[in-house]
Amino acid sequence: MGARLSVEQFADTDWFPSGIAQAIDPAAEQAPLGFEAWRLHTIHDSHLMVWPEGDVESADWWRKILPIGGGGKRWGSAPDFSDVKVEKVDGWGGPTFDIREASGRQLVAKILPLDECGHGRTLSELDCEILDSATGGIQWKGRDVVLFFRKEIGKNAVELVDGALADNDFKTASEICRNAGRVLGEFHLSALTRRSLPNDERRWNNRLKELEARLQSNTLWRAPHTKQTKATITHRNFGLETVRIDEDDEFHISGCFDGVPNAILPSTMDFPVFRDIAAGYRSISRIAAKHNLQYEPASAKNWGWSELDSHDWPDPEPCERWLRRELLAGWNSVGWSTAGGRRAMNGYKGGVAIWEYEQVLEESATAQAYGQEVPDRVRWWLDHVSRIQSSLGVAQVISGGSKLCFIAAILSLLGDQSYPTPTTRLAIGLGLVLAGLGLQFLHFVRAPPPY
Question: What number is the average pLDDT over the span 83-106?
Fold first, then answer.
């Protein structure tokens, strides 16, 4: 066992949850060669953590850990370390290194001190072309300890959208959001082909309960997910920050590994594809906050499902909701039918809104974990949960009233045939049916919007 680790030595690193960390103690597990096992204690839980021992910026260290064995499982392809240059660089999620082989090929190695379930390898096994997934790595106890990636080129979507909004080029920002949604849909098609499971409403809602308890939140929201909602392999780190546009203007998704929040928050699992869509919405919200975009346009517009695939709109008024609409439109052009169709998008049955609520809770919990202020738009969203719940409650009453009208209409036609007159009974029945249809329409228009 090398030098004892402490919370203080990681305080300035961007991946370490210093806001909730309390202590780091040695763990009893035998870590892979080149690593030591530790136990990170937070105010909520205790997490197994691996940390490299030795000079990680030396090619000798990498040559030592890569041979098969050593307590870990090597998979995929790794860099050729016979003659390489290793340089530590900035990178989120854990210590990151640029590796240049003698041939000139450049790769990136990422060490993941905190990993939940080897999600990086899971994504790589999808063999999805639009994912910049890992080419290989080392696993231990089902966790990714090291992952190797191809060197990324190009810019990410956040940089391009940010620049377009700064130049008042809202059309370009909209197109980037639409293309980001399209590649997300292509990823979901691959994921659903590999794994498609029925909804797990109880576990999803229990996880919301755990997040609310951890945050001591005064919000409460549970959703009855429709049977069309399918669970699958989600990205877990998706956002415009992970969408990359290469030199050929091709869109790809990076960030294909298990982020620290996934390890320190209540246990993750398979989720509906709508969770990734909601994560995309939250990334748009962060950009909108930077550029002071309002959620709704100043002049109200009713954008519905029928307009999602339209490209013939006049220049839209800049607002956050339009960018969200474009993200969903791009995804809708590829993946919505496979993901359960519009029934699964029903706002009364979970839809996207409940997953945006989950993402907002996670943002708040992550800010707490890193000792940061909760963003204003996260607070705003949480402050409006009670209003959303009230609206859903009213909608249930309206739906119940609609059903009662239809039942009453049937009873009026099947009642005493002598009183009142047949004409009167028919008029009453027709009136009740019309009232029921009117209430159904009102119920429909009050549904939480998909964007």
Answer: 87
Q: For residue range 336-353, what is the model confidence (pLDDT) as tens digits?
A: 666 666 677 777 777 888
Structure confidence by residue, pLDDT tens digits, 281-333: 999 999 999 999 988 776 656 555 455 555 555 567 788 989 999 999 899 88
> What is the SS3 string spanning the chain?
CCCCCCCHHHCCCCCCCCCCEEEEEECCCCCCCCEEEEEEEECCCEEEEEEECCCCCCHHHHHHHCCCECCEEEEECCCCCCCCEEEEECCCCCCEEEEECCCCCEEEEEECCCCCCCHHHHHHCCCCCCECCCCEEEEECCEEEEEEEECCCCEEHHHHHHHHHHCCCHHHHHHHHHHHHHHHHHHHHHHHHHCCECCCHHHHHHHHHHHHHHHCCCCCCCCCCCCCCCEECCCCCCCHHHEEECCCCCEEECCCCCCHHHHHCCCCCCECCHHHHHHHHHHHHHHHHHCCCCCCCCCCCCCCHHHCCCCCCCCCCCCHHHHHHHHHHHHHCCCCCCCCHHHHCCHHHCCCHHHHHHHHHHHHHHHHHCCCCCCHHHHHHHHCHHHHHHHHHHHHHHHHHHHHHHHHHHHHHHCCCCCCCHHHHHHHHHHHHHHHHHHHHHHHHCCCCCC
Architecture of domain 155-383: Alpha-Beta Complex (3.90)
- pTM > 0.90: no
